[in-house]
């Protein structure tokens, strides 16, 4: 029933506000009634609070700090010039450079070409999903031909969080000896999944519709 849906959404909004998120002109009724603008606004507010706002680089805002972090990490790489969160990522080299800077064994950057953006983007997305536990949120064709700032910013924030925590290689159990090794592995060295990434994973598709 509509009444119960509104009550459920109100509980969610109350929780969000308890985390310090200011919700302006966003009500449960609009969300339940399918107000797309209100829903997208709420989603983006959640992303900013839980995936981007806590990024701290110098005295800059979270957005500018994330951009500066990307610029510093990719500065040594040919054909990469990160100036924004849209066109600077179209050819995929910036994503690949970020990965190579932190995990050079995952990508051979010297073999990449600026003229093959779809390959570069798919390579970065596949490697990030398989080795960095970063969900494949973006579509290569969308980024190459119609990059969306909010979507790319959210996705890039996942790299920031992934690379700013201790990395522990994944262990695959293939024998009793391996099982013993896993059981004896120091638990404190195993990084926990950053809950802020889950926010981006759930809502990134919605943000691509807001222009």
From TrEMBL:
Matching CDD domains: CH_ACTN_rpt2
Keywords assigned: Actin-binding, Repeat
Q: Where is the composition biased (Basic and acidic residues)?
A: 186-199
| Top-rank taxon | Eukaryota
Compositionally skewed regions (Polar residues) per UniProt: 174-183
| UniProt cross-references to SMART domains, sorted A to Z | CH (SM00033)
Check the record and name the Pfam families matching this protein.
CH
User: Domain named Calponin-homology (CH): which ranges?
Assistant: 1-51, 60-164
**Keyword Kinase recorded:** no
| Residue ranges of the region described as Disordered | 174-199
Q: Does the keyword Repeat apply?
A: yes
Q: Show the GO MF annotations.
A: actin binding
Q: Sorted alphabetically, which PANTHER family does this protein's record hold?
A: SPECTRIN/FILAMIN RELATED CYTOSKELETAL PROTEIN
Name under which the protein is recorded:
Alpha actinin
């Amino acid at each position: 029933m509509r009444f119960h849906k509104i009550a459920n959404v109100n509980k969610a909004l109350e929780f969000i506000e308890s985390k310090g998120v200011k919700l302006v002109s966003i009500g449960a009724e609009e969300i339940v009634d399918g107000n797309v603008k209100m829903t997208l606004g709420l989603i983006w507010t959640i992303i900013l609070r839980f995936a981007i706002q806590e990024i701290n680089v110098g005295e800059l805002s979270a957005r500018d700090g994330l951009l500066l972090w990307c610029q510093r990490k990719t500065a040594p790489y040919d054909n990469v010039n990160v100036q924004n969160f849209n066109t600077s990522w179209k050819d995929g080299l910036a994503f690949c450079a970020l990965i190579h800077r932190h995990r050079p064994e995952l990508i051979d950057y010297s073999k990449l070409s600026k003229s093959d953006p779809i390959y570069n983007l798919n390579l970065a997305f596949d490697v990030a999903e398989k080795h960095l536990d970063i969900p494949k949120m973006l579509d290569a064709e969308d980024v190459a031909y119609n990059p969306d700032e909010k979507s790319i910013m959210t996705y890039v924030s996942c790299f920031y969080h992934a690379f700013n925590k201790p990395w522990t290689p994944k262990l695959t159990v293939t024998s009793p000896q391996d099982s013993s090794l896993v059981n004896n592995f120091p638990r404190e060295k195993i990084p926990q999944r950053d809950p802020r990434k889950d926010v981006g994973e759930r809502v990134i598709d919605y943000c691509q519709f807001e222009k």
